[in-house]
Write a sequence for this structure.
């Protein structure tokens, strides 16, 4: 895991667990607000897609894991590919620049302890996803059975299933990294001690 | 590690005692240097020293090879004996000409 985050040219130390937990709370708070707000705005017709993109953007910029940027090193331990052409949106990419050389494979490789923590985080996330799927079971059942009381409440089972699917997808892409950021102890800044 | 390493932090979560911190301090090696030599993150060296992570056999042998010591001199499932007792305690008894009752010389 990396000890600092580069966000629009500014280096932010994330060595303490407290800060990392604050980031996780902020990301899930934003996602929850967007998903809940999307229900009131347009019943997730367009905001549903936006919440998915927000989850992916959070991974790309803050969490990492599926991407080479972010706090958590890439799960596959591979450095980014070197494009032959200059990248599109060069200005934005320079602003999100990470202080590691693309050719420096060591900066992207997980050592044996990091691999163990990665696997542990995925196991915990797998259990969490099981609970999320169990929560999806009931609205999916209502979708088939169409109970009368649900109609009286003015709710549509299809919309509930869609909303829960959005939440499940957001969890799927962010949960292992969030568990790692939440559980890893404070990092020591000094490597020379 | 319990007695020899800084902080006397014991075996930690791993249940394994080690002398990495002592050996590093003795030889003036930074965590980063050791980490680079054995191919891990410097944070992992910190976890090893605190006993919060038990290394793989491969890593344990790499660390032992780096310090040019046998693995059992660096890692142990039992607390290590005090270095001061090992060095000075034994030396004092040898100087006094009376070995400890349970030492090998007395058997």
């Amino acid at each position: 895991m990396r000890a600092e985050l580069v966000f629009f040219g500014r280096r932010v130390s994330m060595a303490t667990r407290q800060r990392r937990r604050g980031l996780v709370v902020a990301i899930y708070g934003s996602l929850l607000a967007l998903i809940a707000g999307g229900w009131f705005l347009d019943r997730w017709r367009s905001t549903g897609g936006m919440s998915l993109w927000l989850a992916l953007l959070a991974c790309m910029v803050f969490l990492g894991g599926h991407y080479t940027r972010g706090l958590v090193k890439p799960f596959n331990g591979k450095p980014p590919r070197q494009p032959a052409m200059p990248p599109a949106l060069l200005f934005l990419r320079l602003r999100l620049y990470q202080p590691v050389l693309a050719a420096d494979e060591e900066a992207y490789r997980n050592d044996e302890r990091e691999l163990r923590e990665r696997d542990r985080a995925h196991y915990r996330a797998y259990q969490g996803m099981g609970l999320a799927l169990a929560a999806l079971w009931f609205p999916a059942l209502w979708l088939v059975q169409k109970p009368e009381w649900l109609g009286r409440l003015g709710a549509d089972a299809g919309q509930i299933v869609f909303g829960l699917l959005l939440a499940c997808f957001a969890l799927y892409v962010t949960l292992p990294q969030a568990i790692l950021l939440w559980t890893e102890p404070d990092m020591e800044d000094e490597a020379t001690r | 590690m319990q007695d020899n390493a800084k902080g006397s932090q014991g075996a930690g979560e791993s249940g394994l005692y080690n002398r990495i911190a002592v050996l590093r301090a003795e030889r003036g090696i930074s965590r980063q240097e050791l980490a680079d030599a054995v191919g891990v993150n410097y944070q992992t060296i910190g976890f090893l020293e605190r006993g919060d992570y038990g290394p793989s056999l491969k890593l344990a042998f790499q660390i032992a090879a780096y310090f040019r010591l046998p693995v059992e001199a660096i890692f142990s499932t039992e607390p290590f004996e005090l270095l001061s007792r090992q060095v000075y305690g034994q030396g004092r008894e040898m100087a006094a000409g009376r070995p400890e009752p349970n030492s090998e010389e007395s058997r």
Summary: Chain A is about 60% helix and 5% strand. The first strand of chain A starts at residue 4 and ends at 7.
